[in-house]
Design a protein that fits this description.
Layout lengths: L8 E3 L9 H5 L5 E4 L2 E4 L9 H5 L5 E3 L12 E6 L14 H15 L4 E2 L2 H18 L6 E2 L4 H10 L13 H17 L6 E7 L2 H9 L11 E4 H11 L16 H4 L6 H6 L4 E5 L1 H12 L8 E5 L15 H14 L8 H12 L21 H17 L13 H9 L9 H19 L17
Parallel strand pairs: 5-6, 5-8, 7-11, 8-9, 10-11
Antiparallel strand pairs: 1-4, 2-3
Helix pairs in contact: 3-8, 4-6, 14-15
């Protein structure tokens, strides 16, 4: 039996009112409403957070780690996402670098022992990504692996595109690897006793962290704490102190910070003939184009599940458009060029050639849409599905609790729903039953019926 998957996106059942708003927005048709409550299919869910944004009843939430988990380790490192800087307004031009340093200091005031800036890891990822694409080792158009919701979308809905995903560590992984190595060498503490925590803008990265915890081997990122969960404390501690010697990374470039918003990754990678797409439904439209062979000439696709990029994550506080402007102002105020000199690039290349930045994941398709593992049974079920679908009204209203009529037909064939879950089919059945009852109501048992004029009983 396959191990149960962890999902950050969870349902608060007592708040769910069965309104069916979420089923229409889910990009992988992972939600059904049954018995008045939403049900999330774990195989199909990609933790993109669309249902969190859609739910007016706040019945969908993202489960993340709490700050109390820092007590589980001898030493802890904060890994702030580049998009975190977009949550703080810069009132004057001089504020730009101040905001950057204040965020670092506020994280230390929360109890972390050190900070490794993920924006600096993004600078490294940009260099490696460019090098890898130019090598021609991955099928084009190459798709960024930085957004875990997009990677999961490919596995679940576009398995033919797995070969297009770049086998390069995302910045969160690079930051975790380097941060623990540096801190261990400075402190003498074993890396297993050092906890690295990503400050996350989204549910998908929380799931990614849990999936990459390796009980039998080395773990690079041990937890994820939501931006929204610590935002108030960060505001209170802004200006509490400098990161100074507790910073494990050099200062990122504006290009690395720019990864926090849509288009920033591509700007940092610096390739010609690219495509940037954000918003999970827009990503799906672009991936369908790739499957049809219409984007073969594109070198690189930056795809992000959230509209506006990570600043639009469901665990962010600021309006995503404000966050985007803040990121852009901060990036412009910093050095808009690679932070690496020739010697540093040579060192990064050495690590790259040694496979240090190569993702070890063997990504496999997720058979979430299969009707049956047995091919002959699956074909038979497909025939049943088409027959059931012919009898449904085709209005795709969602009142049955499935996102559209085809999904209901699939659920019926799988034994997860019945035809009368469709309100129109139910009305037909009720009407037919009422007609039969009316007909029967006109009838009397022969022993009680009165004779008509011909002498026959009625």
């Amino acid at each position: 039996m396959a191990p149960e998957r962890f999902h950050s996106v969870s349902l608060l059942e007592d708040k769910c009112r069965g309104c069916t708003n979420c089923i229409k927005r889910c990009p992988t048709e992972a939600i059904r409403v049954r018995e008045g409550k939403a049900r999330i299919n774990a195989e199909r869910c990609i933790d993109c957070g669309e249902c969190i944004r859609t739910c007016d009843n706040h019945a969908k939430v993202a489960v993340t780690d709490s700050i109390e988990r820092l007590r589980d380790f001898r030493a802890t490192i904060a890994l702030p996402a580049p998009s975190l800087y977009g949550q703080f307004d810069q009132r004057v031009a001089g504020d730009v670098r101040r905001i950057y340093r204040d965020v670092m200091g506020a994280l230390l005031a929360l109890g972390f022992d050190a900070v490794y800036d993920v924006a600096y890891a993004a600078d490294i990822a940009s260099f490696i990504t460019r090098t890898h694409i130019e090598s021609g080792a991955t099928e084009k158009p190459c798709i960024s692996s930085a957004c875990p919701a997009v990677v999961r979308l490919v596995q679940v809905r576009f398995p033919s595109l797995i070969s297009h995903l770049l086998p390069v560590d995302p910045p969160i992984q690079i930051a975790g690897k380097l941060a623990k190595r540096i801190y261990a060498s400075r402190s003498g503490i074993d890396t297993r006793d050092i906890g690295a925590f990503f400050i996350t803008p989204c549910a998908a990265k929380m799931r990614w962290v849990r999936e990459h915890i390796n009980p039998g081997g080395e773990t690079y990122v041990d937890g994820a704490i939501s931006v929204a969960g610590i935002y108030g404390d960060l505001l209170k501690n802004m200006g509490a102190g400098e990161s100074g010697p507790s910073s494990l990374s050099d200062t990122a470039s504006g290009l690395g910070v720019g990864w926090g918003a849509s288009g920033g990754e591509n700007r940092a990678v610096g390739l010609e003939n690219y495509l940037v797409v954000d918003g999970i439904h827009n990503v799906i439209a672009v991936f369908e184009e790739i499957e049809m062979g219409r984007l073969a000439s594109v070198n690189f696709i930056e795809a992000q599940a959230c509209t506006g990029g990570c600043v639009g994550g469901p665990l962010m506080v600021k309006n995503p458009f404000v966050g985007r402007v803040n990121i852009r102002r901060l990036a412009v105020g910093m050095r808009e060029a690679s932070p690496f000199n020739e010697q540093e690039e040579s060192h990064i290349m050495g690590l790259y050639r040694a496979g240090f930045f190569e993702t070890r994941e063997d990504l496999q398709p997720v058979a979430a849409f299969k009707l049956d593992e047995d091919m002959s049974k699956a074909i038979a079920k497909m025939g049943q599905l088409e027959k059931v679908l012919e009898d449904l009204p085709g209005l795709d209203c969602g009142s049955c609790g499935s996102p559209h009529c085809r999904a209901l037909a699939e659920d019926i064939v799988q034994g997860l729903a019945v035809e009368t879950d469709c309100v129109f089919k139910l009305r037909e059945q009720v009407k037919k039953l009422a007609e039969e009852l009316f007909y029967l109501a006109q009838k009397d048992p022969s022993a009680m019926s009165k004779p008509d004029k011909t002498g026959q009983g009625q």
